[in-house]
Design a protein that fits this description.
This protein is an alpha/beta fold. It has 11 helices and 21 strands. 27% of the residues lie in helices and 22% in strands. Bound molecules: zinc ion.
C-alpha cells in the first residue's frame, strides 16, 4: 500500500553531493555556502564543501546534479481525520500528494472533519489522544503528521489539559471551532494548555463553513494563542485595521494560509516587514477545506508572497521551514547539524522565464520538485504534481 512508510533496517548514512544551492530555512542566513550534506541515522551530521566532509561509507548517495536543497516544507495548518483520507472532499491519498509538493511535516489545527466528531469532554479528549497516536504510528508516505489537536469546549477544566498532556497531546485545534468563542474562556483554557506544554492556535476571521463563527481581533488578542491561525481568514479575513492591531498587539505567530484571503495575506506580510518581525510569519494551507486539497499549496504560498509581496524567494522559503520549526519547537525545518534529515530537492521548472530557481519563484512560478527525503530516506523522486524540474537529482550509489 502507498501508506506504508519505507523504514531503514540498519544504520544509514545519506550523502547528498553536488548541491547547486542550499537554502537553510533560517532568516538570518537563508543561503549556505556548501555543496554537501551528510546525514547519519536520519539526522544531519555534516554540512560543507565536499573536500571538507567525511563522505566514506554512505549507504545512499544522491547526486543533486546542481539543484537546490531546502529543508522539507512544513504545513502549519491542516485538518487530517484518519489515515490518508479526508471526508471534506472525499479524497484518498491527499497527504501523499502533499509530499509530492515538498511537504514533509504537517501540523493539525484540529481533526474537525471527523464524521460524528464528539463534543462532550470525554469524547474530545479520547479523539485527541486517538489522533495523536494514530498519526504517529502511520506516516502516509513518510510525512510527519503532528495530530491530536482537540477543539476546546466550555465544560473543560484544568485537569482535562493535564490529562491530555500526560497522554501525549501537544496541540490545541483552532480555538473558536468548538463551543468556546469568547475571549475570557479562551484565555483561561489556552493558559491551562500552555502550562502543560500544549501549543495553541485560533480561528481568525469570519466563519469558514456553515456552523463555524466569527472570531475578531478582540477575541484573538485576549485568547493569546501561540499562533494566530490563518490571520488572513479562512476564507473571510478581518478588516485590515484589525489585522494590523493583531500584528502590533502581540508577539505571536502570524500564520498565512492558502485557503484564505490572499490580499489579506499580503497585507499581513507587509505589516510584519514594516515591524521588522518576519520571523513571526509561518505558512499553512488549511487543507482539506471547502476550496479543496492543495498538494502544491505551500509552494504556491511561497511563490505568491515572494512575487506579489516582494520578498526574496530564499526568505519566503524560511516562512515554510525554519520559522515554523522554531515557533513550534520541531526538530526539522532547518539545515543544521543535529536536525532531522528532511529535505526537498528542487530546480527551476522547465521553461520558466526565471534565470534560476530563486528568480523563477520571484517571478511567480513554482519550482519543480525532484526528490523528497524524510529522516534521511528518499521518499519520492520526480514529483508527479509540480511542473517538471529542469534538472533532477539522482540516486547514484550506496
Ligand atoms: Zn479556521
Amino acid at each position: 500500500m502507498a501508506h506504508d512508510e519505507p523504514k531503514a533496517t540498519g544504520p544509514t548514512k545519506l550523502l547528498i553531493r553536488n548541491i547547486g544551492l542550499m537554502l537553510s530555512g533560517a532568516l538570518e542566513k537563508p543561503i549556505l555556502d556548501a555543496d554537501t550534506i551528510v546525514a547519519v541515522n536520519g539526522k544531519i551530521s555534516a554540512i560543507g564543501r565536499a573536500r571538507d566532509v567525511d563522505t566514506e561509507g554512505a549507504t545512499t548517495i544522491v547526486d543533486a546534479n546542481g539543484t537546490t536543497v531546502a529543508p522539507g516544507l512544513i504545513d502549519s495548518h491542516v485538518h487530517p481525520v484518519a489515515g490518508d483520507w479526508t471526508p471534506r472532499q472525499n479524497q484518498i491519498g491527499w497527504i501523499d500528494s502533499f509530499l509530492h509538493g515538498g511537504v514533509t511535516t504537517m501540523i493539525s489545527a484540529g481533526e474537525v472533519h471527523m464524521p460524528g466528531r464528539p463534543r462532550d469532554v470525554v469524547g474530545v479528549k479520547a479523539m485527541a489522544i486517538f489522533a495523536q497516536r494514530a498519526f504517529w504510528t502511520l506516516r502516509p508516505g513518510g510525512v510527519k503528521v503532528h495530530a491530536g489537536a482537540p477543539v476546546i469546549e466550555c465544560e473543560m477544566v484544568e485537569d482535562d489539559f493535564k490529562e491530555m498532556a500526560a497522554a501525549g497531546v501537544k496541540l490545541l485545534g483552532e480555538v473558536g471551532l468548538g463551543g468556546v468563542k469568547d475571549g475570557p474562556t479562551a484565555r483561561k483554557m489556552v493558559a491551562w494548555a500552555r502550562k502543560y506544554g500544549i501549543q495553541s492556535t485560533i480561528h481568525t476571521g469570519g466563519p469558514s463553513i456553515p456552523g463555524s463563527g466569527l472570531i475578531d481581533k478582540d477575541v484573538v488578542l485576549e485568547a493569546d494563542t501561540d499562533v494566530i491561525g490563518h490571520i488572513n481568514g479562512g476564507h473571510t479575513a478581518l478588516p485590515d485595521d484589525q489585522i494590523r492591531c493583531i500584528c502590533e498587539g502581540c508577539r505571536r505567530g502570524l500564520e498565512l494560509v492558502h485557503n484564505g484571503n490572499e490580499r489579506a495575506a499580503l497585507f499581513t506580510l507587509r505589516t510584519a516587514r514594516e515591524m521588522d518581525e518576519l520571523g513571526r510569519v509561518i505558512l499553512g494551507t488549511d487543507a482539506p477545506a471547502g476550496s479543496g486539497v492543495q498538494p502544491l499549496g505551500i509552494l504556491r504560498m511561497v511563490s505568491m508572497l515572494s512575487s506579489l509581496g516582494e520578498v526574496p524567494a530564499e526568505i519566503a522559503f524560511c516562512f515554510a521551514t525554519g520559522n515554523t520549526a522554531r515557533m513550534r519547537a520541531l526538530d526539522c525545518g532547518l539545515i543544521e547539524v543535529g536536525r532531522s534529515a528532511d529535505f526537498v530537492i528542487m530546480d527551476k521548472a522547465q521553461h520558466s522565464a526565471g534565470k534560476n530557481i530563486l528568480d523563477s519563484v520571484r517571478l511567480g512560478d513554482l519550482p519543480g520538485v525532484g526528490m523528497t527525503i524524510i529522516d534521511g530516506i528518499v521518499r519520492t523522486q520526480r514529483s508527479r504534481n509540480t511542473p517538471p524540474a529542469t534538472k533532477v537529482p539522482e540516486i547514484v550509489g550506496g
